Amino acid sequence: MPATAELSPARNARPADDLAPEGTLAPPLTPGPPSGWNPQQLVTALIVFGPLAAVLAVALGFFSRRITLVDLCLAVGLFLISGHGLSAGFHRLFAHRSFKAARWLKITLAVSGSLGLEGSVNSWVANHRRHHAYTDRPGDPHSPHRYGAKPVALLRGAAHAHIGWLFHAQPTEEARWAPDLTADPDLVLISRLFPLLGVASVGLPMLAGWALTRTWAGALGGLIWGGAVRIFVLHQTTFAVNSVCHLWGKRPFLTRREDRATNFAPLAVLAMGDNWHNFHHASPRSARHGVDPHQLDSTARLIWMFERIGAATDVHWPDSETVERRRVVLPSVNLMSGTSFPTPVVE
Ligand SMILES: [Zn+2]
Ligand SMILES: [Zn+2]
Q1: Per-residue pLDDT tens for 12-31?
Q2: 19, part of any domain
Q3: What is the chain's percent helix, strand, coil content, to nearest 5?
Q4: pTM, whole model, 2 decimals?
């Protein structure tokens, strides 16, 4: 008997707080091959592979200078600022409206998230909302299940979900998917300033390295560690949420029928709580993703602090009844092993 047969109607109900009902906002895009390189894709390649080149250069010993305390502080500090700008700002505030933010906080989170170099806030949100509307179905911009369930197809899908999708010509209309953001002059301006913020993301740590050490070596250290290496780690973490967190991990909560989002614990620190992706897909508007004991979610803690000082209001904290209503008992999944996927059928 399939697991779903034992589920109550309430459990079978589709999560009520999804931002985008399935298939109502836009026709699903049919998967297709890359349609040639254009200038935007070249910029994307620079942003994605530039930091990788810097990391390889460091690993191969091209920079003889060892990492200093200043380098480390710049890297960790900017990682936390840009990472939480993405998780608390781009993701939970702007994409899912998990809380309302005072204007200064909204602007701060939009700018700090832009320093993560993952695209402008409006384009990021538009793509992410499309991901939730069509999760793991045609139309999802970055599903690892795009090419099928066989091991080779899943490997190919994992590469697509991790990086490949960034180079596929699947434009997501911001006005259609994020009309609330395109109507906000602050966010429109910050989106337009994204190229400048991108330059600042690598220029600021370089300047800070120089200011703190008064040496060109200090400036280079700031550029490499606070800029390139920090951006590389941040990118790979976000990419892993798109790929790994739809392939490996636990699925303790009920999601839509095709939705294969998982909780992948090892990413908790780097992803700042966004790795509890199964619960997030089960309850997208929740301001907390790590709802079980010992599930680290620094983003939820940050939102809690903003709420304490009155900068965040109407925070959608998940209550225990909501959490338990979405909970199902399913085995862990390892889709790369070729085992069949134990997703319950939700009709
Ligand atoms: Zn989301
Ligand atoms: Zn997802």
Answers
A1: 333 334 444 343 444 444 44
A2: no
A3: 55, 5, 40
A4: 0.85
